[in-house]
Amino acid sequence: LKAQVTRKAATALAPGGVLASNTSTLPISELAEACPQPEKFIGLHFFSPVHKMKLVEIILGKKTAAETLAKAFDFVLALAKVPIVVNDSRGFYTSRVFFTWSNEGMALLAEGQHPQAIEMAGMQAGMPVGPLAVLDEVSLSLAQQVRAETAAAGPADQGFSRLFSGHPGFSVLDKMLEMKRPGRAAGAGFYEYGEEGKRLWPGLADIFMDGQEQLDQKEMIDRFLFVQALESVRCLEEGVINSAADANIGSIFGWGFPPFHGGTLQFINACGLDAFLDRARELARQYGPRFEPPRLLLERAARGEVF
Questions:
Q1: In Å, how far are 25, 108, 158, 164 from 155, measured between CA atoms?
Q2: CA dist., res. 72 & res. 21, Å (int)
Q3: pLDDT-derived band at 160, boundaries 50, 70, 90
Q4: Residue 49, pLDDT score
Q5: How many whole angstroms separate alpha carbon 14 and alpha carbon 144?
Q6: Taking the CA of residue 156 as centre, how many other CA atoms within 13 Å lie in the half-sphere pointing to its CB?
Q7: Residue positions annotated with a catalytic role
Q8: What letter does residue 9 receive in the DSSP assignment?
Q9: Where are the beta strands (DSSP E) in the chain?
Q10: What is the model's pLDDT at position 203?
């Protein structure tokens, strides 16, 4: 559908015009293939609800011209929004890191942690809402679609593909969709929705809890914060983002990383790189390779160089 719209819009494009697409995961370079002038095609990722969210993620395609970027940047400023510029990659920066935190919520549920404790840990970490609530808003069916598209794309986008390959939280996603609970839009997800508001679906505890040992809140909070910070380092290492400032601004204004931490990479600085490394390795031993420190982090720590 985007390709059809792009081809039609391109026929009416003014000589100095720019074509932009709002997407949260689809690679801009692929979308630009439908444009006869791919140098005039760019990604402008707005966040929901648009009237409240200040960030716009500007995504450069492989053939996007500098002039197109300049016009897009000015356009975002004219809307009184906050722009960050990222390079093309499936999921870009914001969606890629966002999914790490929501997926971690599902991983905790898969481990038999109490859903209310998971949600409280997310909010105590400083996130705007719990990970299960935010997945309901995004919709579990959309998360499943992104997962399927990423798998179909193959290894071209290693960073994003890794997030969706064998993640321990996906057994929860599969089970919820099997039970026809795809999220808020359908009126049934991790939460129940009624005239009096919403509440966690009692069936979650029945399905996923079976006497498992319960983690303390600090452990869950660490998992939420560390998994986002580590993925931000990988995005910087892979050239998806260009600076620590973009990472920090994007994380706070894009998906609500706790502002009092100063952003995902500033969180690492505040912890101290050596202390952060020690804790990340500990989490990796306990919960898997998604917590393994990236090479760039090891190099920065060895040089005593903050982000």
A1: 15, 27, 5, 11
A2: 11
A3: low
A4: 84
A5: 38
A6: 14
A7: 45
A8: H
A9: 19-21, 41-46, 55-60, 82-87, 191-194, 197-200
A10: 95
Buried b (16+ CB within 10 A) or exposed e, 10-40: beeeeeeebbbbebbbbbbbbbbebbeebeb
Question: What gap in Å lies between CA 181 and CA 190, rounded to an integer?
Answer: 7
Tokens encoding 119:
């949600």
User: For position 307, what pLDDT does the model report?
Assistant: 97
Tally of CA atoms within 13 A in the half-sphere of 117 that contains its CB:
16
Taking phi over 0 as left and psi of -120 to 50 as alpha, with beta for the rest, 139 belongs to left
Distance CA 269, CA 265 (A): 7
Pairing state between β 191-194 and 82-87: unpaired
Asked whether 294 and 234 are in contact (CB, 8 A), the reply is yes
Average the pLDDT over 203-218 and give the result.
95
User: 3-state class of 101 per DSSP?
Assistant: helix
Report the Cα 284 to chain-centroid distance in Å. 20
Picking from 18, 23, 12, 24, the residue whose alpha carbon sits closest to that of residue 38 is 18
* Predicted confidence (pLDDT) per residue in 34-90, tens digit: 999 999 999 999 988 899 999 999 999 999 999 999 999 999 999 999 999 999 988
Mean pLDDT score, 13-18: 92
State residue 154's pLDDT score: 65
Tokens of 15: 């000589």
Q: Are 191 and 132 in contact (CB under 8 A)?
A: yes
Q: Which residue has the tokens 């079976």?
A: 210
Tell me the sheet residues that pair with 42. Answer: 20
Q: According to the 3-state scheme, what is the secondary structure of 145-189?
A: HHHHHHHHHHHHHHHHHHHCCCCCCHHHHHHHHHCCCCEHHHCEC
